[in-house]
Structures are given as C-alpha cells and as structure tokens.
Amino acid sequence: MTATILAVGSEMLTPFKVDTNSLHVTERLNAIGYEVRGKAVVCDDLDEIVAAFRAAVGRVDLLVCTGGLGPTEDDLTRDALARIMGVDMERDAGILEDLTVRFARRGIVMRDNNLRQALVPRGAIAVKNANGTAPGLLARVDRTIVVLLPGPPREMKPMLDRLIGDGAIPSHGDGLFRRVLKITGRPESEVDAIAQPIYTPWMSQAVPISTTILAALGQIELHLTAAAAGRDAADAVLAPAVQALCAVLGASVYSVDGRGLEAVVGDLLRDAGWTIGVAESCSGGLLASRLTDVPGSSAYFDRGVVCYSNEAKRDLLGVPEAMIAEHGAVSEPVALAMADGIRARAGTSVGIGITGIAGPGGGSELKPVGTVAFAVVAPAARSVRTVQFFGAREQVKYQSTQAALNLLRLLMSGPRG
After folding, report:
1. 132 & 216 share domain
2. Going by fewer Cβ within 10 Å, which terminus of the chain is more open, N or C?
C-alpha cells in the first residue's frame, strides 16, 4: 500500500520553520504496511492545496495532510478537501458544541472565526481533537483515503495514533521496521567500505534487509530496514544484522537504539555514579546545553562555565597566564588546564575543557579556523586531542562538542579506576 504526505503552511517555505510532522507520520505509516511515495510542503493557497490533493488522489492509497485546519482565513485545507470531493461544507453541531464548551471552560470568548473549525465537507467524517480546537477530517476520494490532521505536533500525533488504533487508517500486511546504528569518529567512505561486505548479501536473503548510509554533522548513520508482521518479527531479523555490523565497526558505534551521544554519555555517567562539569570557550555553552537536554541529567551534571576570554580562563578556572602566553589559548595544555580547573572547582568526577577557533576569522597558518583542542579528565584517566573541523561557525561548535563527548564515552567504555 502506498501513501503521500502533505504539510500545509507557508511558514514552512521560509528559512525559519521546517516540516517535522512528516517524520512521525512516515514512521507510523511504515509500521502498518504503507510505503511513503511522496512528501511535499504546500503554501496557504487554495488552488495550490487543491492541485497537491489532485496529484495524490487516485494515485496512492492514503493521503495524510497536516496543517491548515485553524480558524483564520489562510487555513484552507478543509476548503480544498470540499473542492476535490465536489461538495459543499456544512456546520457540524457536535464540533460546535465541543468548541463552545472548551472556550467556556477556559473563560475565553469564542470569536466568530472559530466557527470555521466546525465546517465539514458533506460526506466527510469529523475527528475530535482532545488537545486543541482544530478537529481532523476523514474522507474517501476515488480509491484514496484522505486524512486531514492539525499541524501542531501535540495535537497531530495522538490523533494519528488514534485513527490507526481504531482502524480508520487500516493496516495492510507487513510493516517496515528500522534499526539505526549511529557512528562517530570515522568518515562516511570508511564506514561504507567496512560495512558493505557485511550488508550486501542481506538483500537476497529470505527476509531482505535494505541498508542506507547517511552522513550527518559529526556522525554517520546506518539505517537497516526490513518488512515484517510486527516489531518482534522484525527484530529477529534485524538484531543479528546489527550485531554483525557492530562487530566490524567496533567502538565507533555509539548507539543502536536511537539515543544521541549526549544520552549515551549521560547513561554511562549515571551508571558509574560520576558527576561532570564542563568548561567551554569556542563552543559557547553548547556542550552544557546538550548534556542538560537529556531528562534526568541533574543526576550527573553539576555545572558549566563559558570562559571565552583569557581572563575568564584565568579567573574562573585557574589557567596560568604563563601557559596561555607560551602555548596560546587554543592548545592542548590549556584545554587540559580548563578540564582540571572545572573539575577541581566543581568537585566532580569528570571535567571537560574545549578551546578553539570557530571562525570565520581569527585563524592563523599554524592554527587555522576550525582548530579545536578538547580534553577530558576523569578518575585515573586523562586524554586530550586537537582536531581541525571544517564547516561554518555553528558546525565547528557542534563538532567540537561531539568529539569531546565521544572522547569521554571511549574513556568510560574502557577500564575505569
């Protein structure tokens, strides 16, 4: 069975907002047997939305559209559905009552434009929204099931899950299930050269496994996909494949269960009963932000210091002026001194120091833009590295935190004192 996903909203055609709903929709549809054949973002224009609907209807089995169901004049998705169905819209008394009760309960005056949300194309089915004011809509046009969902993820996700659970969006045979290996410290070409002899035969086995390699900032991902009746059946095929790849890629694989590197490191710290403090110069607090993005990080994260100037490194961390003068602020001795300084002042098990040149200016022949020194000091373990990263300023900053986290992961994965 095939599907198309549309996201309606002119804001997603600007540099300021992207469509993320389609990722969740794709995952849920794959799991119930739909192959997603197309995705598109459509502006808030009735003719454009209608054209996108007509391009999908009759061609795929399922069309899922998110957004454009609000109360304003530019919320036109329900109008587009009425047009492709060739029907008028009618006010749904049940929706109107739900809206009236919802606004009254919150002590908010319901404006006239909210009445638009009670309009339903004749023959379509309204889907109640327990988390917002925009009801969904369900219809069949030609051979295609058309599902309209609200745009906000907190409203869209539970509505989609309910439609799948109720069978309104029917399941069809085997679903597509994935396992993702996340790898860092190796370039894409090296990962593929090592992994290809392992995964190439999988396409011709009884239950084929397709493999996709994706390069992302600071890491490589290997996506393994298999069709199966359910997650348990898929894991019976995918788990040995994951093990085979881990065996050849070794310690560069940091996650096989979807966790990011900051979550993996956080679990290692929690399991060891260790705490951490970080001292950052060029990364500007990004490492502390990533570590504290993980729920429960208060169990191990103590503090972070952003020490951009030489004076801050001296005053806040005790980095000797003579060391900076001799080696420069971007150097391995200074990175180690920063890690030692934050560890001593915080009284933590681990200290990390990062100092570098994020660019675009400020580099030299000996230390070009992208040069970063980072150090990890832990019980019975000290390590420091200097790497030249490439990319724009924000890319250098991210890669520096990725490399520092990975260095800590590798130290903690080995023998610990």
Report:
1. no
2. C
